[in-house]
Amino acid sequence: MNFYYFSICHLCKRSSDSLKKCSHCRVPFYCSRAHQLLDWPNHKNLCKAITNTNKFRSIAPGCSAVDFNQFKYTNSLLWRYEVGRELEFAEQQMWMFPKVCSVCFSFEAEIVCEICTSVAYCCEEHQNSHKEEHAKSCPTLKMCLLVYQTLCTEELTVDWVKFKINREATGQGENLEQTIKHMGFTNPHDFSKKQVDYIIMTEYFCPALNLIYPLEKTRFIERRQAKKPTVVMHVVGPSTNENKMSWILIVEYLSHWVFNLKAAKVFLIGPEVNKEETATITLKCAECKAKNFVGTVVKIKGLYHDHVNYIPRPDLIVCFNSGLHEFMDSKGDTWKKSIPKLVGFRGVPTMLTAYTETELKKDVGRFKESHINYIVTPQRNPFSSLRPNRNWEEGSEPVFYQSGYVAIVTKK
Ligand SMILES: [Zn+2]
Ligand SMILES: [Zn+2]
Ligand SMILES: [Zn+2]
Ligand SMILES: [Zn+2]
Ligand SMILES: [Zn+2]
């Protein structure tokens, strides 16, 4: 996994007091000439594109946040055009998080926050004027970097993968931290290696806990017993994130959490499904084997309203960070016909999650108020991942979380 920060070597991802920037495009930094040379084959094409477009840096310091966002976005299009392919994740982060003053957006920004090393300033005056504001997100930004550094050096061998849930636990509790305690883990809140592992763990378990949340709310699951031995879930409009999710882990967690559950069927339906497939998951652990538990993950590429009538009736419908509102009123609005189907089953909860409260409210706004009842009104998701992600848009919250906000509705 590759990523970009202006405060670490772009090759080895380590911090250093003597970072040198690429002298052509001035975007990536390196700890040594040797590391720059080693990275050159990867960086070469984009470096030329950045240098050719020239526009980069041609924005007046002191512009508004809105203008600077537009400027960054324009750069991304120019770079992509020049390089003739989609930008990779780390390359995207280069236009998203350039080394500029957080106050005036000047590219002459040599003062870097020593704690998070994620923000820069052109002068002490600007750093001081931003101190109070930055203090709110500085520790979280530091955690963003620590998580990235850990993920790029370690495979998932952390021992929490073999999880065990306390059999005495009767419900998920108030939030993710309480639930994860049922597996014997607590958040040390101390920026140690242990905490970074903990935060990464929450990212993996959060989807499973999110699926259980509406099922416990509607008492489909009560005291870790389900109303019926099979649960059917429709995950609508999955993106790269949901395609990549560890569905084996999610399904196994469900099996361990719900004592009488014999089968979990997950249908991922959307235009961004990576490939059509039906995977049967047979779990090898003694607990799952003893009850002959079977998990099924079916991936269907297409629109929900075209397929919903041909698959088993859901017990839960979920849209993870789907952005229902995004193409509203445009020709590309693929959600229009699917919206009524999302709340088409009486007694079945529909859960929507989003990165921000504003986005979530717009998403929920697509349902006719007269057609739905709220089980959970749009709010901060108690079962959101604890892993912070940097937000590139200046002027909004500096970080966001996967499924950071949640709403649960049912058909009226
Ligand atoms: Zn290096
Ligand atoms: Zn370069
Ligand atoms: Zn400045
Ligand atoms: Zn900081
Ligand atoms: Zn198991």
Your description of this structure?
Keywords: Metal-binding, Zinc, Zinc-finger. InterPro entries: Mss51-like_C, Znf_MYND. GO terms for molecular function: zinc ion binding. This is MYND-type domain-containing protein. A hairpin with a 2-residue loop joins strand 5 and strand 6. It contains 12 helices and 16 strands. By secondary structure, it is α/β, with parallel strands linked by helices. The protein folds into 2 domains: 115 residues, no CATH class; 212 residues, Rossmann fold (3-Layer(aba) Sandwich), CATH 3.40.50.150. The model has no long low-confidence stretch (mean pLDDT 92). The strands form 5 sheets. It has an 8-stranded mixed β-sheet with strand order 9-10-8-7-11-12-16-13. Strands 1-2 form a two-stranded antiparallel sheet. It has a two-stranded antiparallel sheet with strand order 3-4. Bound molecules: zinc ion (5 copies).
